[in-house]
Amino acid sequence: MRWTVHGERAVYEDHWLDLWLADVETPDGSRFEHHVVKLRNLAVAAVVNERREVLMMWRHRFITDTWAWELPMGLVEADETPGEAAAREVLEETGWRAGAMKPLVYAEPAAGITDAQHHLFRADGATYAGPPTEKNESDRIEWIPLAEIRGMIDRREIVSSGTLVPLLYVLMDEGVR
């Protein structure tokens, strides 16, 4: 069933996110204002080497006060494609120059509240270019064997949907359990 949008208005806008109120009507005739969080597009890269390891970062997220492993990711800038953003983020955050970015999967992580678009890529192979230029992203950068990913997910060492979705897709492609 389709909801009808009668209008929208901005409540707050900045570089990171916009908060809007949408005047909506549900199929049963109810009408109310619904909050909508508008976000810029995100690009994520799963870089897999010839040893069947994936390039990951151990980082702290202050909002949830949690430590976990994540893939390199970041916002897509106005002058770049999602694939270019994914490659840039890998280099800036890890110091590795990834091979060609291949689209892996597209996801909308919370379509009931946000218009966020996640563009998820896979790159096979990378070349070390030097230390990361982005100093505020992670404590450690490691190549993690794909065979260990399922256990890490089960132990909640990997929790971000931006990391979970592409890793699960890679595991399906690789036939790793």
Written overview of the protein:
With 177 residues, this protein is of the alpha+beta class. The chain has two domains: 36 residues, no CATH class; 133 residues, Nucleoside Triphosphate Pyrophosphohydrolase, CATH 3.90.79. Strands 7-4-10-9 form a four-stranded mixed sheet. It is elongated. The termini are far apart. The model has no long low-confidence stretch (mean pLDDT 95).
Short description:
With 177 residues, the chain is α+β, with helices and mostly antiparallel strands. The chain has helices at residues 82-94, 146-154, 161-174, and strands at residues 4-13, 17-25, 31-39, 42-48, 53-61, 66-70, 73-75, 96-98, 101-107, 118-124, 126-128, 140-145.
Descriptive key words:
12 strands, Nucleoside Triphosphate Pyrophosphohydrolase, single chain, 177 residues, three-stranded antiparallel β-sheet, four-stranded mixed β-sheet
Based on the structure given, which CATH architecture of the largest domain is correct?
Answer: Alpha-Beta Complex
Task: Estimate the global geometry from the Cα principal axes.
Answer: elongated
Distance between the termini: 38 Å
Average predicted local confidence, pLDDT: 95
**DSSP helix count?**
3
The helix/strand class is alpha+beta
Work out the count of structural domains.
2
CATH class wording of the largest domain: Alpha Beta
Characterize the quaternary organization of these chains: single chain
The CATH superfamily of the largest domain is Nucleoside Triphosphate Pyrophosphohydrolase
Helical content class: 10-25%
**Regions with little confidence, pLDDT below 50 for 5+ residues:** none
Number of strands: 12
Strand order of the biggest β-sheet: 7-4-10-9
